[in-house]
Amino acid sequence: MTTTTPPVAGPLTGLFTPRTIAGLRLPNALVMAPMTRSHSPYGVPTAENAGYYRRRAAGGIGLIVTEGTLVDHPSAGHETDIPRMKRAAAAGWESVVRGVHAEGAAIFSQLWHVGSRRDPVDGQSAWTPSGIDEHGTPNSHAMTMAEIDRILAAFGEAGRLAYEIGFDGVEIHAAHGYLLDEFLWPATNRRSDRYGGSPANRSRLVAEIIAEIRSTTSPDFPIGVRYSQFKELAFTARLADTPAELAELLTPLVRAGASLFHASQRRFAEPAFAGSPLNLAGWTKKLTGLPAITVGSVGLTRDALRGDATDPHSLAALADRLAAGEFDLAAVGRPLLGNPEWAAAVRTGDLDSVVDYVKEHEDVYR
Ligand SMILES: Cc1cc2nc3c(=O)[nH]c(=O)nc-3n(C[C@H](O)[C@H](O)[C@H](O)COP(=O)(O)O)c2cc1C
């Protein structure tokens, strides 16, 4: 990690002080958001992947959440370049973890099942809670109880393997309309058994996954849950219309042993519910008492980096809200694609070296 140059004193300094979150010592408040890159042939991380993550750690990020990593079951996803959490990939992951640790940063593995977003392969349709899209149109295979058990076991094994490999924690991907979010969302979960209906039933599978990983790792292994109101294919969708409804969904996850939450929004500055300025991470922390990561257009442009706290979208405004304790960490995604040294540049005030995100950065891998 680049620690030789002192930070520029000012409104952003608080982002760069060490802290302990969910029992984990972190050098600062900045998290690399999980971003699928599809650069791991046959699901196995390569030296190129290790270099990619190490560069962001060396560039000053405190905690890396890996790209979505498929749990080891054929229904989890069909793309062969997306990394997997499987025995054959363990050595590749070990070198990723080693490189990040060598730079003084921590790293979580994001565990993923794409649900309805898997293309039909070999005549097998995608696995989902109820076999329907949000309009009720049949589009996939409604999972049996035995199939739910298999996916629960696959997440459990993936968590255990991540722990053995040396990851500092895992993040369960329950956001953006993929399998676990399809269980959370009543539009796609119309089950009448113990996995459907009430909010507690809809969050049961995620809770069971947490408990399973907890039982095969250690009491203090950080287990995070990423969730969102919006879906990648339905930006205005909502899991909960009120804080009380959100509490009903999240409380079983806390009871199951979750350590922290990653509340995914497209823009961190937007309030989660009418009548309060708190964003989704703010409400999550308030309702659960657990640490929360915020995300969504954090420092996305150089204007946001230069703006003062009167601009609600600025990094300075974010730093104020973090200092006030609304949330604990802030994740940055797209800016890190084109700027591996983004965090160090922000810390030292070298903003001229930062290039604004453009879509083409998603095609570059370095
Ligand atoms: C190329 C790309 C890939 C992404 N892949 C994932 C993923 O694998 N898992 C996930 O939870 N979110 C994924 N996201 C969402 C990001 O983690 C993040 O929430 C989003 O980009 C908003 O943050 P930003 O404004 O800082 O980019 C992806 C985003 C991008 C741009």
UniProtKB/TrEMBL annotation:
UniProt xrefs under SUPFAM superfamilies: FMN-linked oxidoreductases
Protein's UniProt name: 2,4-dienoyl-CoA reductase
Annotated ranges, domain NADH:flavin oxidoreductase/NADH oxidase N-terminal: 15-348
Swiss-Prot/TrEMBL keywords: Flavoprotein, Oxidoreductase
GO MF annotation: an example: oxidoreductase activity
